């Protein structure tokens, strides 16, 4: 099989795997892993020949860009804000997991030398891999479930952040563990000194040099040059650390940290994302293909033990630590369930250990299979986490009841109030306006710190997930005069709309959204009004522009009001570009410019007659061949060479184009 054949096989498999995961609403990483596992029998024998070595080297660049993005997202502000969870729960989880797994593995080798033959170096390398959890999978599921600001969500993200940081010293430690016993102490000392000197030099003067260099490049105003320099910096620093006896990933992490302190961070993250996603996907496919299922089937008791043992241990350890550090029993158990699995950095560390000869092939495959299986099970464990907690934690029902009672107590004597879902900036501004008009309100928010501060300030706000019907009913939804959803999470907004329509269909619901593409979806779900930020921003820009060019203020206000009364008919259409490709569930209007063909039989006829043969299309503007713009009224004559700006759905616009340009 040629390199092109193998590349096409990878691409087809990746597309099908990711599409299946999107359809099932699972993280794309699972699709890559499953694809690698499924295509392995068909490529065994030639995928790991000469071509496979090149593919494995290419997959290593996925790890490089993963570490670069982790470094890019690293900032001291986030660490300070989450320091209690990062350096409390996160530090204890990593250290205790590594200690317990290392000594447990050594003890098992002493008790069962025939079945478990490992050195302490191998035990420590395996412990570092077991200590990691999947940032990509868990963070995605937390975001999808709107739990990032919940109590267990903040603890989970704190632990994941510390694990990302812990990878850096582990990337230095594992290669040193591969040295001979008599040279081990010297190798560890040398590796530590190299890491300290390299990182110190890069971070000491690197930020100023990086800012100066990127500013110099940005002044050339060339996107290609800027992109090439980002790749050069990332791979160049990775090359430097590798030749310093460290690892490629460490240099990439440092490059990300250096750029994160400059004003170019957001642009760099946007530019590097395609490389990161594609190469990281290739890395996970190769991880799946590394599995030799013949060895796994022969050693299935060992694989089962390696799946169940570490997962249960991490679950109990994390839950116990969270409980000791002040979390409720339900929050502690949820945190443990979210962090029990293996992670992508575990694969990185395991592969590095295997390359250093620390993990024998007969042990590498069972461990790898166990990690893959634990990651595949993660979405299903998290989706069932609430049922598991309610079944195992007897106090959880009572705690949820107390939470609902606390909300209900604040609204028990209130009627005709407004229920506000989300108490961020938008929710707080709305609450202030309601207070000015002496209209009562009740706000629900899932951020405990924000709720505590707002309650202390005297605001009518309570901790609760608005996507749960119990929270809405406790907030007095049935007696409310209106329900307002102020956050931008469409999936959560649709859940709220479903519960509101089911339990209080008489209450009008106002929804805030970012783009007009969700208008029809939200209206169909029962929203009385949908306020798209993009359209409101366009109206405000238009009103200011008209006022500044001399249009009387009264006329400006009237024009804007007319547009609002027409439900944004003009602004809902737009000229598409490469970034505005419609999604299958998007039914919004588009705009298209169509020029009347020379010699057309429609030339000279009024606009109403020109568009008579095309339904569901309206004319927004008309520009003559000379460049003059005229009013697009029904009586306006359309001449050959005139350009019409039309608005409508894609099918209708395509039909209009055939009629006018044909």
Description:
This protein is of the alpha/beta class. It has three domains: 3-192 and 276-354 and 362-391, Na+/H+ antiporter like fold; 413-527, Rossmann fold (3-Layer(aba) Sandwich); 587-661, Regulator of K+ conductance, C-terminal domain (Alpha-Beta Plaits, 2-Layer Sandwich), CATH 3.30.70. The chain contains 28 helices and twelve strands. α8 packs parallel to α16 (344-355) and α14 packs antiparallel against α15 (329-339).
Summed up:
The protein is of the alpha/beta class and 662 residues long.
Mean pLDDT: 78
Relative helix content: 55-70%
Strand order of the largest sheet: 3-2-1-4-5-6
What is the CA–CA distance across the termini?
48 Å
User: How many structural domains?
Assistant: 3
Number of strands: 12
The major pleated sheet works out as: 6 strands, parallel
- Rg, rounded, reads 30 Å
């Amino acid at each position: 099989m040629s390199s092109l054949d193998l590349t096409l096989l990878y691409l087809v498999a990746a597309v099908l795997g990711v599409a299946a995961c999107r359809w099932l609403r699972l993280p794309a990483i699972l699709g890559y892993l499953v694809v690698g596992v499924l295509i392995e029998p068909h490529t065994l024998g030639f995928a790991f020949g000469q071509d496979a070595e090149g593919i494995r080297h290419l997959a290593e660049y996925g790890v490089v860009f993963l570490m670069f993005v982790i470094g890019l997202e690293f900032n001291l502000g986030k660490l300070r804000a989450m320091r209690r969870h990062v350096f409390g729960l996160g530090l204890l989880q990593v250290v205790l997991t590594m200690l317990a797994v290392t000594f447990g593995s050594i003890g098992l080798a002493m008790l069962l030398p025939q079945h478990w033959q490992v050195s302490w170096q191998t035990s420590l390398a395996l412990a570092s891999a077991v200590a990691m959890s999947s940032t990509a999978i868990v963070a995605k599921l937390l975001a999808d479930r709107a739990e990032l600001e919940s109590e267990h969500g903040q603890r989970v993200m704190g632990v994941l952040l510390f694990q990302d940081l812990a990878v850096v010293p582990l990337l230095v430690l594992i290669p040193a563990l591969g040295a001979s016993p008599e040279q081990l102490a010297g190798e560890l000392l040398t590796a530590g000194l190299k890491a300290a000197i390299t990182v110190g030099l890069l971070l000491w003067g690197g930020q100023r040099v990086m800012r100066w260099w990127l500013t110099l490049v940005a002044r050339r105003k060339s996107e290609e040059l800027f992109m090439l320099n980002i790749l050069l910096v990332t791979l160049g620093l990775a090359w430097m650390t590798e030749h310093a006896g460290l690892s490629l990933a460490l240099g990439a992490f440092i490059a990300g940290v250096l750029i994160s302190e400059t004003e170019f961070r957001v642009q760099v993250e946007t530019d590097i994302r395609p490389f990161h996603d594609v190469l990281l996907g290739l890395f996970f496919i190769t991880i799946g293909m590394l599995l030799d299922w013949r060895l796994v089937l022969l050693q299935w008791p060992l694989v089962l033990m390696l799946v169940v043992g570490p997962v249960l241990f991490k679950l109990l350890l994390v839950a116990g630590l969270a409980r000791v550090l002040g979390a409720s029993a339900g929050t502690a158990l949820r945190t443990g369930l979210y962090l029990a699995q293996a992670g992508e950095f575990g694969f990185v560390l395991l592969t590095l250990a295997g390359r250093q000869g620390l993990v024998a092939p007969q042990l590498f495959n069972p461990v790898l299979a166990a990690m893959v299986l634990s990651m595949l099970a993660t979405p299903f464990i998290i989706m069932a986490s609430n049922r598991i907690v309610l079944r195992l934690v007897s106090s959880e029902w009572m705690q949820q009841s107390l939470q609902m009672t606390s909300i209900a107590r604040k609204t028990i004597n209130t009627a005709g109030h407004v229920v506000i879902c989300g108490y961020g900036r938008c929710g707080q501004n709305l609450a202030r306006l309601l207070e000015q008009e002496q209209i009562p309100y009740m706000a629900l928010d899932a951020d405990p710190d924000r709720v505590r501060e707002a309650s202390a300030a005297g605001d009518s706000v309570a901790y609760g997930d608005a996507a749960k019907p119990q929270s809405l009913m406790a907030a007095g939804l049935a007696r409310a005069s209106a329900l307002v959803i102020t956050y931008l999470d469409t999936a959560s907004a649709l859940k709220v709309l479903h519960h509101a329509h089911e339990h209080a269909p008489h209450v009008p619901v106002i929804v805030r959204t970012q783009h007009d593409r969700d208008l029809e979806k939200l209206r169909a779900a029962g929203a009385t009004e949908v306020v798209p930020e993009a359209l409101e921003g366009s109206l405000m820009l238009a009103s200011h522009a008209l006022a500044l060019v001399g249009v009387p203020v009264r006329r400006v206000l009237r024009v804007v009001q007319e547009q609002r009364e027409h439900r944004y008919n003009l602004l809902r259409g737009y000229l598409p570009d490469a970034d505005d490709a419609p999604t299958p569930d998007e039914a919004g209007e588009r705009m298209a410019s169509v020029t009347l063909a020379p010699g057309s039989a429609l030339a000279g006829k009024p606009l109403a007659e020109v568009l008579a043969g095309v339904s569901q299309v309206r004319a927004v503007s008309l520009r003559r061949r000379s460049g003059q713009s005229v009013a697009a009224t029904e009586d306006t004559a359309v001449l050959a060479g005139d350009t019409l700006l039309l608005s409508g759905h894609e099918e209708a616009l395509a039909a209009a184009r055939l009629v006018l340009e044909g």
